[in-house]
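Blinded run. Sample ID left blank on purpose so nobody reads anything into the name before looking at the predicted structure. Input follows.
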Amino acid sequence: MSISLSRVISVSLQAALAGLSNANTSALAIVTNEIPIAGSSFGTYGIYYSPSAVAADWGSGSSVYAQAVAIFSQNPNILSSGGYLVIIPRIVSNTAQPAVVLGSGPVDLTQLTAADYKINLALDGASAADVDIGTIPTGGTLTQIQTALNSTAIAAAGVVFSLSGTPTAAVVKLASSGTGATKEIKVGATVATGINIAPLLQLSGDVFGTAAGAESIRDAILRTYPTVFYFGILFNVIPTDSELPSLAALVQSIEKIMFYAEITDAEDTGIVATLTASGLTQARAILRIDTLANGILQAAMYASRALSTDFTGDSTVSTMHLKDLIGLPADPGLTETYLTHAQAAGADVYADFGVAKVFTSGANQFFDQVYIGLAFKLAIRTAGFNYLATTNTKIPQTEIGMNGLKAALRQVVKQFVTNGAFAPGQWNESTFGDPADFIRNIKDNGYYIYSKPIADQSQTVRASRAAPLIQIACKSAGAIHSANVIINIEA
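Blinded prediction complete.
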């Protein structure tokens, strides 16, 4: 019989391991309170590549169709860089559903013998505060204990305790009783003074209910962003001043950018300036004075043009300053006073310079700074993950392993030099690593990557298999938005 060649040569064919794709930084969503033609069978969201497809689901008279026309009419637009449009209808409920924090297991309430119990709560996005409960009657019935838990302060806070079971094995629920738009309860882990009753009742978490009518914009984002990817966010209505702070904070935390229309003077006491002062750079205000409808369309046009960058290209990054928006004339309501206020507050406008052009404000950072920063952060994260996740063996915890990891990150940085986000230049701030290497690399390449030697790691850190901290410095290519010229004429 023939003897197997594997006794001499053994060959294994290994398939390449899957990695992550880079985030689609041109995917744009509209959160709408309109109802699609398909009714409730429409589902959670729809993805679109043309206005006609939007019209088929939403009707040509809908506001989201008008926004879709505005989005796909720009040149370039989100399709130019592989993007798409997501439309998310807000769920409509006839009855309000309170937020309910449910205890994780039965508790023995007879063990609560102190007199200074408190619980830390934050409701509907407000600041957290300690709420007094006081003494619990350890020999009381379940009803008596429930009454004690529902102190005057608890009732005033807008929540209510309910108990089931027995005093020695009770299941605890904490529910919202107010009428706030989000109906959110967040249970804090500590209290400033007294005894925190939350862990004793096995209560923890950040829980949302729903208000009657259409769900809030914030809830719609929380519901959908884990399910469908989108990077930019628009609305078919203008969020209220009371909604915007928590909405902007949410968008900042989930690494997205929202574009909202502002139709009143962006004074230093207004909501735009408030968000800017809070450092919420991923909330982008687009000021349009003439009409509400035009303000919403202008925000859609701006978002599509702004998110059109293909970061994999050569010299593809852009600034929104002095760019065209196709489909609307310059804002006829814009005056020098409005423009001055917008610049100070951090809103961008569409101005008439004899030709219509976007005029940007750097008060809340320029849009391209925010866009590039987020795109770079996401690309670096993906590259680092893929380097670690696509090896069939392991990355050694040595300088060879670190060089490989830094090389993977370096490819991303070099691409952001190629696309025009970063460029060689003079570094003007503090340095890290070797100062001479730092300055030379920034001057010659536009970036510097450094990690401390593996040998300097503590044994505790090494045992956790963590890499030494990697630090990256990049010199922004910036953009020229204006110039001063002096002319000397000699007779």
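Unblinding after everyone has recorded impressions. The CA atoms of residues 315 and 420 lie 5 Å apart.
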